[in-house]
Design goal:
This protein is of the alpha+beta class and 131 residues long. The chain is built from 3 helices and 4 strands, in the order βαββαβα. The longest helix has 17 residues. It is elongated, with a radius of gyration of 34 Å.
Length: 131
């Protein structure tokens, strides 16, 4: 699985932005890829200027594609003039293992304590003190 994150020129119209996204998705689908997630584009302020622009549309697409077609995709992205920068990363799918639960040990029975009378307690204390 791959994640493609890219910045699109903010000066293009919304129709042109939609067209760029459609071109990329069609490219992926044309080479037997599968789009898993498509995060909608939103205009953001950049931390530093990119090609003298301080804003850009941020777009993220998660997809699956054959390894042999990735280089072709990179070249295709470089040819699109509206894309300022891009980042293509490989995402590893994490398999979550089921948690192992330890069996609960039964508690030992607690014997109820019998009440001791104060007189018996006093006698017992005197015996202890005499020793």
């Amino acid at each position: 699985m791959y994640e493609l994150t890219f910045l699109v020129n903010p000066n293009i119209s919304s129709a042109e932005l939609t067209d760029v996204l459609k071109q990329l998705k069609d490219f992926i689908l044309r080479y037997d890829g599968e789009i898993i997630k498509d995060f909608s584009s939103q205009k953001i302020n950049l931390a530093y200027p990119v090609k003298k622009l301080k804003q850009a549309y941020l777009v993220v697409i998660d997809f699956e594609l054959g390894k042999d077609k990735i280089e072709t995709l990179k070249n295709y992205i470089k040819d699109l003039k509206a894309i300022l920068r891009h980042l293509l990363i490989t995402k590893k799918q994490i398999k979550i293992k089921p948690a192992r639960f330890k069996p609960i040990k039964p508690k030992t029975e607690i014997k109820p304590k019998t009440k001791i009378k104060i007189e018996e307690l006093d006698k017992r204390l005197e015996e202890i003190l005499e020793e």
